[in-house]
């Protein structure tokens, strides 16, 4: 009787603590009492055994394979971009101005060249696209369109793309042509360009094909549809 | 490497933690080799954790890189108030929620590109598959607590820090998650 009432009093607390006994993070002083309860409580014993199995299964390797290296290359491109150096450090003063500034503010000439090349290219092809400079750069002014019969890029799907810094102007032209895409904005956020597609806007499936074609090009480090724009 | 990936505690706290703190210090000094090392240490566990939020690898990858972008920018601000893994997971969790709000509800299907079907017809693989499905049915917060506790091995207090909620909330979320999983498990598992 006495034992039973002690059991039922401990049970609700024990129930809450079982997962942390299972994952080994329970404070050492809480462990003996919990183990004692589990030993005497069939319900907790069953629960404990089941949670051990669940944890084992969750720790097992899944079928997902993640390409860490290629993901890191994308991050590296971002870190090495001039945008990274313009990024204001909002929190706390820089721990060491000498190391935090000198190394980081070193801009990559290749990336700068690419930014210039892309904009030149956009004009050379005669896109008739709206060109915005990156809003982060501080200006909001729109450039005028190059032709009066410019197709509107205000609606329709968009994609964000990061090009390799080794991409030549000619290769860039080929990439854009193959995807039926035009640069309509950028660079922003680590030299990411926004692409629009010549009207009529491609269907979702067609867009996915074009983005797949972009991704297939080794000079395209990153290509993703802009979710809000895809309908 | 394996032990650091799966059980931060197994390397008796000190070693893993000291190593990661040292990496952070080098990252604060703009050492990109250290950045790469830390990134590769965390990529898989973050990817798995984030795939529970988004089910889309492209988004998970974006959040990982956003997370490490923050790490790159703020490594010098890390004061060791928590473990490095708690700090990084906390950033990833918040970035994940933010991205999720922006991207809208996740689609039901998993990105095919992220999937390489290497089926092993063992019982454990079956249970894992079932768990993947079942976890997707749990509310986001419950799913996260399960993942943080069982896959990543975080303590109740660490999960509270990552999710920025009281420890009692963590315990309650875990409790409800287990209860729902248990119902599904007994239905699906049948007699042993
Ligand atoms: Zn009990």
In brief:
The complex is a heterodimer of chains A (231) and B (192). Chain A has 231 residues and is an alpha+beta fold. Chain A has 9 helices and 4 strands; from the N terminus they run H-H-H-H-H-H-H-E-H-E-E-H-E.
List the helices and strands and how they pair.
The complex is a heterodimer of chains A (231) and B (192).
Chain A: H1 2-22, H2 31-40, H3 42-59, H4 68-79, H5 82-86, H6 97-102, H7 109-125, E1 158-163, H8 169-179, E2 181-188, E3 192-197, H9 204-216, E4 220-225
Antiparallel strand pairs in A: 1-3, 1-4, 2-3
Chain B: H1 2-6, H2 14-28, H3 32-54, H4 57-74, H5 84-103, H6 123-136, H7 140-151, H8 156-163, H9 167-189
Zinc ion (ZN) binds at residues 11, 14, 37, 41, 43-44 of chain A.
Question: What's the number of helices of chain A?
Answer: 9
Oligomer: heterodimer
Count structural domains of chain B: 2
State the distance separating the first and last CA atoms of chain B.
Answer: 35 Å
Shape of chain A: elongated
Assign a percent range to the helix content of chain B.
Answer: over 70%
CATH topological fold name of the largest domain in chain A: Alpha-Beta Plaits
Name the beta content range of chain B. under 5%
The largest β sheet of chain A comes out as: 4 strands, antiparallel
Count of distinct strands of chain B: 0
Structure description:
The complex is a heterodimer of chains A (231) and B (192). Chain A is of the alpha+beta class. Chain A has two domains: 2-59, no CATH class; 99-138 and 153-229, Alpha-Beta Plaits (2-Layer Sandwich). Helices cover 49% and strands 11% of the residues of chain A. Chain A contains nine helices and four strands, in the order H-H-H-H-H-H-H-E-H-E-E-H-E. In chain A, strands 2-3-1-4 form a four-stranded antiparallel β-sheet, sandwiched between helices. In chain A, strand 2 (181-188) and strand 3 form a beta hairpin. In chain A, helix 8 runs antiparallel to helix 9 (204-216). Chain A is elongated. By secondary structure, chain B is mostly helical. Chain B folds into two domains: 9-104, Rna Polymerase Sigma Factor, Chain: A, CATH 1.10.1740; 118-192, Orthogonal Bundle (Arc Repressor Mutant, subunit A). The longest helix of chain B is centred in the N-terminal third of the chain and has 23 residues, at 32-54. Chains A and B meet through helix 1, helix 3 and helix 4 of A and helix 3, helix 4, helix 6, helix 7 and helix 9 of B.
């Amino acid at each position: 009787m006495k034992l039973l009432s002690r059991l039922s009093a401990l049970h609700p607390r024990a129930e809450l603590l079982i997962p942390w006994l299972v994952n080994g993070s329970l404070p050492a002083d809480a462990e003996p009492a919990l183990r004692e309860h589990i030993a005497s409580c069939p319900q907790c014993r069953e629960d404990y055994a089941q949670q051990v199995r669940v944890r084992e299964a969750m720790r097992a390797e899944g079928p997902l394979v993640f390409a860490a290296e290629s993901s890191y290359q994308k991050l590296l491109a971002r870190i090495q971009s001039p945008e990274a150096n313009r990024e204001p450090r909002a929190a706390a003063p820089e721990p060491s101005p000498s190391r935090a500034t000198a190394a980081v503010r070193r801009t990559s000439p290749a990336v700068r060249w690419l930014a210039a090349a892309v904009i030149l290219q956009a004009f050379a092809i005669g896109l008739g696209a709206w060109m915005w400079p990156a809003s982060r750069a501080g200006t909001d002014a729109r450039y005028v369109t190059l032709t009066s019969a410019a197709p509107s890029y205000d609606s329709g799907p968009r994609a964000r793309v990061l090009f390799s810094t080794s991409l030549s102007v000619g290769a860039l032209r080929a990439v854009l042509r193959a995807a039926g895409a035009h640069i309509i904005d950028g660079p922003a956020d680590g030299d990411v360009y926004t692409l629009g597609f010549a009207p009529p806007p491609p269907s979702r499936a067609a867009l996915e094909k074009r983005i797949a074609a972009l991704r297939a090009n080794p000079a395209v480090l990153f290509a993703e549809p802009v979710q809000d724009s895809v309908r | 490497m394996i032990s650091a990936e799966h059980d931060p505690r197994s390397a008796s706290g000190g070693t893993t933690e000291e190593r990661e703190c040292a990496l952070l210090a080098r990252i604060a000094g703009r050492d990109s080799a250290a950045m790469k090392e830390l990134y590769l240490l965390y990529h898989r566990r973050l990817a798995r954790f984030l795939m529970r939020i988004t089910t889309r690898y492209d988004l998970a990858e974006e959040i990982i890189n956003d997370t490490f972008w923050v790490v790159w920018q703020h490594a010098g601000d890390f004061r060791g108030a928590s473990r490095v893994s708690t700090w990084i997971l906390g950033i990833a969790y918040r970035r994940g929620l933010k991205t999720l709000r922006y991207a809208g509800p996740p689609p039901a299907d998993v990105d095919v590109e992220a999937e390489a079907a290497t089926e092993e017809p063992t019982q454990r693989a079956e249970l894992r598959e079932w768990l993947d499905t079942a976890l997707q049915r749990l509310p986001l917060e419950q799913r996260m607590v399960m993942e943080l506790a069982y896959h990543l091995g975080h303590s109740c207090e660490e999960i509270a820090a990552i999710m920025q909620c009281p420890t009692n909330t963590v315990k309650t979320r875990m409790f409800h998650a287990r209860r729902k999983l248990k119902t599904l498990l007994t239905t699906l598992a049948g007699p042993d």
